[in-house]
Structures are given as C-alpha cells and as structure tokens.
Write a structure and sequence with these properties.
Layout (H helix, E strand, L loop, with lengths): L1 E2 L9 H18 L3 E4 L13 H11 L4 E4 L2 E2 L5 H14 L4 E6 L21 H4 L8 E3 L2 E3 L9 H10 L10 H13 L20 E7 L4 H8 L4 E3 L8 H11 L10 E9 L3 H7 L3 H9 L10 H5 L5 H12 L2 E3 L1 H15 L3 E5 L5 H17 L2
C-alpha cells in the first residue's frame, strides 16, 4: 500500500495523519505486506511531507507489516541524512523497513514539454481492447499515450528551492545510492580514504528499493546494483513497460540474485461498480489540480465533484490517469490487477487508494484484500 496521507475537503491535517496511523493498523490486519509513505511538499491536499517521521510513527503503531518510503526524493536530501534517518528507524524496527528512493530532476520538466501520464482505471473502452489515438493495449493492459503537460517551471523552481532542491545537470544518482549503501554497511570513506562513521546508519537491517517512472537512470541503477525496482503505472502508465524492460536488461546480481519488480496501481473498490465509480468521481478534478500547476487540492466529495466541470483541456490532461485507474467491484478490480501483474511480470503490486471518506478508503483496501486472497 502507498499512502499520501491525503487531506479530504473539510478535513484537517491532524485528522489526515491520524487516518494514516489507523489505515496502517488496518492494513496489517488485512494481510498487506508493506505500507509505504509518499513525500510531497507544499501540497494543499497531501499531508505526507516527512516520510521518515511518518514511517517511524507507523512502525511504532504496528507489529509486523513492513514500512517504507514511496519515495524519498533524493534531490532534497544528502546520502548521509537519508541513511541516518532510515537507519535510525531500522535499528528500532529491524527487518521491517524499506527505503524507497526516487530521483527528482527539474531538468526534465521543461516548460511546455510533453510528459508521461498518471494513474489508472479499467474503463469499458480499455476492457474492450480499444485504445484512444496514440494509446495501445498490450495483452489487455492499456498503455496510454503521454499527455502534453506544460509545467510552470518558475513556480515549481521557487517551491523546490524552499525544500533545498539541488538542481544539477548530472546528479550522480548511482553514486548517491552507492553512498547510502556504504553508510549502511559502515564502509563509507571520504575522498582521501578516511573512514567516516555514521552509527545511526551502520548495520541497519533495511531494504533499499529504487522507484522509476521511465527507462532512464533510475531503472538502470536499480538493475546495475541488483536492487528491487518499483515501476510507476499509477502516475506514469505510458512508460511502465519500457521501465521494467530497461531494468531487467540492466540487471546484474547484487543485493538480489534475480530481478524483483513492484508495479503501482491506483485503485478504488466498492461492493459494486456503480458505487466505486461514485467514490472515485473526485479523482479527475484532483488530478487536474496537479497537472494544471495548482498542486493537489483537498480531495473532493462526490457531491463537490459533480460541480467541478473540467474544461476540454483539463479532460485531455487527465485522460491517461482516469483511463488507467482500477475502479469497480472486487471482482472487476482483481481482474484488472491480474492483467497488470501478468503483462508487466510484476512480483508485487503497490496499491494506492484515495476517497473522500476515510471509511470508504479503509473498506476499499479490505475488499481488495479479501478478493485477492480468494483468487488463490
């Protein structure tokens, strides 16, 4: 499970954070294996801005489920700080911590550039195997065309500077990952060969993951270092197959002897398809707020969503995410997720669900867990 600690319209930040703790406890009881927290800064509708803090709190509130980041944005942090924060948690909760690393790079967000899409839904069109222009269906899985998204780079740059983003043409991502590994192993040395101790990190029992949204440096780094990969279908579905292929092509035995892939999916489950679609109705306006540069708004209720009429441009910008969101009854969603698993060759699926009501979100995860277990 991936949790953004979303803020629903009319809700407070303390309420959203308490919901995260409650959902994590429920996830453990439902049988989920991992509970990951996102990192999003300066976002009106998201409370998960400090994943290391939240992960520590979730680990303390649960007993068995693995807890981790999906993902730490490395452009905002140094290798030693990441290793020490997650090492601290892992020393207190050994064998339960996942360090998911993401590669933030403003250089890819050129103003007016066409960027890949987001999320997921098993629409009737996709289920029938019909794809919109520029899209394709691979063995039943919709791979949408990337939408043209023009980002306000000036505004984004101002926000990133507030969180300490380091903008460099070559961010040495593989070196950063290796440095984190060295701090955790207790073997890090500075430029003159002097050993640099980091007791908070050294010897910590945790698992490093690389999260990737393209066939670029992140996927290659995961493969070359023999690390597990998280491939992004729920935000960038247009590139998921290329991402997984690049990882497997680059894979060399390292931490793992064989490739291991997790693929993300955006999901809403309810007792029947119509109810699920109603619960998911706020998703379009929510994604539009992100894609048009406002930052994720507090998630609207179905009644509020009815009044939020998207423009033609907004509909075009969010179509890929709506068309790849898995929404419906337990049977409908499990059927779609099995296709996603089979086509990508995923070893695990990472599920993220947002609804206006916390009760509906908990129930969605519960229904999915029950239905998924029955398929075996």
């Amino acid at each position: 499970m991936l949790d953004l600690a979303p803020l629903a319209s009319g809700a407070s930040t303390p309420e959203a954070l308490r919901n995260t703790i409650d959902l994590a406890r429920r996830a453990e009881s439902f049988g989920y294996s991992r509970y990951w927290l996102a990192e999003h800064h300066l976002t009106p509708g998201v409370a998960s801005a400090a994943p290391a803090v939240l992960i520590g709190l979730v680990a303390a509130a649960t007993e068995r489920i693995r807890v981790g980041s999906g993902a730490v944005q490395t452009g905002h942090h140094t290798a030693v700080v990441i290793a020490e924060e997650f090492g601290t948690i892992a020393h207190l909760h050994p064998g339960r911590v996942d360090l998911g690393l993401g590669r933030s790079s403003i250089g890819r967000l050129k103003d007016g550039a066409a960027l890949p899409p987001a999320n997921g839904s098993t629409t009737k069109e996709a289920a029938k195997g019909a794809a919109k222009p520029g899209s394709r269906v691979v063995d039943g899985l919709l791979i949408p065309a990337p939408p043209a998204v023009a980002y306000d780079i000036e505004r984004l740059s101002r926000q990133l500077r507030l969180v300490g983003f380091r903008d460099a043409p070559d961010d040495g991502y593989d070196d950063l990952v290796r440095d984190i590994q060295a701090f955790l192993a207790g073997t890090y040395q500075d430029a003159d060969g002097t050993r640099v101790p980091a007791p908070a990190a050294a010897g910590a029992d945790l698992q490093i993951w690389i999260l990737a949204a393209s066939a670029g440096e992140s996927a290659r780094t995961a493969g070359q270092l023999g690390l597990p990969l998280g491939a992004n279908y729920h935000v960038v579905p247009s590139t998921v197959l290329d991402t997984v292929e690049a990882y497997r092509k680059a894979f060399q035995p390292g931490v793992l002897s064989q490739p291991w892939v997790m693929v993300s999916a955006d999901v809403v489950v309810a007792p029947d398809d119509a109810t699920a679609r109603r619960l998911a109705s706020g998703y379009g306006p929510w994604v539009a707020s992100i894609r048009t540069g406002r930052g994720a708004i507090p998630f609207p209720s179905p009644e509020e969503a009815d009044a939020m009429v998207l423009t033609d441009r907004e509909r075009a910008v969010v179509a890929d995410r709506l068309d790849t969101q898995f929404v419906g009854s337990p049977e409908t969603v499990v059927r779609g997720l099995r296709v996603l698993r089979d086509v990508t060759g995923a070893d695990e699926l990472l599920i993220t669900t947002i609804t206006h009501s916390h009760t509906d979100r908990v129930r969605s995860y519960e229904l999915l867990a029950e239905a998924w277990s029955r398929q075996w």
